[in-house]
């Protein structure tokens, strides 16, 4: 057995090239609220864009909160609007192994440097987890000394929440930090 396929003693999984790598954070020094997902979907990784799956409610929710059709804008312009309004986007996991896009399939996840992100965003007032898998790290994010919120997932897999119900929950958190 070669060293490239030798399982890791801690995780039992093979190291290296089969791990997926997430996306860079979308932040600015004046970011007040960061929405933390779990890890990008297959569609997001392929497009190298946050929330690229066409049925994900992330961009439509922000559009409804801000009165802008964000989906009509090129991705770079969407990110400019996000930064301008004081919102940040990132994921709790930097790398993981996963077949498909479901959070339940995430294995051997490595956390992003959330403490380092806090240092890069001096105006940061709060963090909001987008869904349950992200919220599993709330113990870690609370240790950063900021308010931490759990938002309903924008994923198409979260079909039990209507768009309107998600919007109400997101509006409440975004409003608390002047983003709605």
UniProtKB/TrEMBL annotation:
Domain Uracil-DNA glycosylase-like, residue spans: 24-174
Coiled-coil blocks: none
Pfam families in the cross-refs: UDG (PF03167)
Protein known as: DNA-deoxyinosine glycosylase
């Amino acid at each position: 057995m070669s060293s490239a396929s030798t399982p890791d003693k801690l995780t039992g999984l093979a190291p290296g090239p089969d791990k997926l790598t997430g996306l860079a954070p979308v932040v600015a020094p004046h970011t007040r609220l960061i929405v933390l997902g779990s890890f990008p979907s297959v569609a997001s990784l392929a497009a190298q864009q946050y929330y690229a799956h066409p049925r994900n409610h992330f961009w439509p929710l922000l559009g409804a909160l801000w009165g802008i059709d964000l989906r009509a804008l090129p991705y770079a312009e969407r990110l400019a609007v996000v930064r301008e309004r004081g919102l940040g986007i990132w994921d709790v996991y930097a790398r993981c192994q996963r077949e498909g896009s479901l959070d339940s399939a995430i294995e051997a996840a490595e956390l992003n440097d959330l403490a380092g992100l806090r240092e890069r965003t001096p105006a940061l007032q709060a963090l909001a987890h987008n869904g349950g898998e992200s919220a599993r790290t709330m113990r870690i994010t609370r240790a950063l000394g900021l308010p931490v919120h759990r938002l309903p997932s924008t994923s198409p897999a979260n079909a039990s929440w209507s768009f309107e119900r998600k919007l109400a929950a997101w509006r409440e958190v975004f409003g608390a930090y002047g983003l709605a």
